[in-house]
Design a protein that fits this description.
mainly alpha, acid-sensing ion channel 1 fold, elongated
């Protein structure tokens, strides 16, 4: 009985020790299988600097809990301050972009002497009507839109009386023998003269005249 009791006692002790060990193993295994949460995994894999220090895998570490909490608090403050500065700077740059800024720079340079500028003076009325001759109307009347293809006055009822009288006299080509016609000579003779058009000219305190200009329109029209 004693031996049997001892054996029973030993077996009971083994069973109790084995059950406690199995419970510890199961609890430890469950703890190891539990693992970190999804947010902790994201914090560890995120490239945002400092996030993994705010959300570590476990609260247990080599340092004291107070030191760990203080470290997490400092990292949280630093990360929050960085995000606030990022938002403020982005907002300021966006507002600056939407204001459409532009810079206009004007430099004023005073020069003692200037080169006489190239000026083109054009008269909308290319030819002087009063300088037309009968030969001009015969060769260029249609070009000037004063006569039609039949050398007749188009729509005489719409023409002013003095213009109609002039055209009627010059366009009478009965028994008329045309003479040679030169477009260059016609342009130089019938075209407007700068001496008649220029009323006043002054450059750098000195008066200028039509002699300071040269005619180039004749050459351009013949090209």
């Amino acid at each position: 009985m004693v031996k049997g009791g001892v054996c029973v006692s030993v077996m009971d002790l083994k069973e109790s020790c084995g059950s406690e060990a199995s419970r510890e193993t199961e609890s430890g295994g469950m703890g190891s299988m539990r693992g970190p949460s999804s947010w902790q995994s994201f914090a560890q894999r995120s490239t945002l600097h400092g996030l993994r220090y705010i959300f570590p895998f476990s609260s247990s570490s080599s340092s004291s809990p107070r030191r760990s909490a203080s470290r997490r608090l400092l990292w949280s403050a630093a990360l929050l301050a960085s995000l606030v500065l990022l938002v403020l700077e982005s907002t300021e740059r966006l507002a600056y972009f939407l204001s459409y800024p532009h810079v206009t720079s004007v430099d004023a340079v005073v020069s003692g002497s200037l080169v006489f500028p190239a000026i083109t003076v054009c008269n909308l009325n290319a030819f002087r009507f009063t300088h037309l001759t009968q030969n001009d109307l015969y060769h260029a009347g249609e070009l000037l839109a004063l006569l039609d293809v039949h050398l007749q006055i188009p729509e005489p009822h719409l023409t002013e009386p003095h213009v109609l009288a002039f055209l009627t006299d010059k366009s009478n080509f009965t028994n008329y023998r045309p003479k040679p016609f030169s477009m260059r000579e016609f342009t130089e003779r019938v075209g407007h003269d700068l001496k008649d058009m220029m009323l006043y000219c002054r450059f750098q305190g000195q008066e200028c005249s039509h002699q300071d200009f040269k005619t180039v329109s004749t050459r351009k029209m013949l090209i």
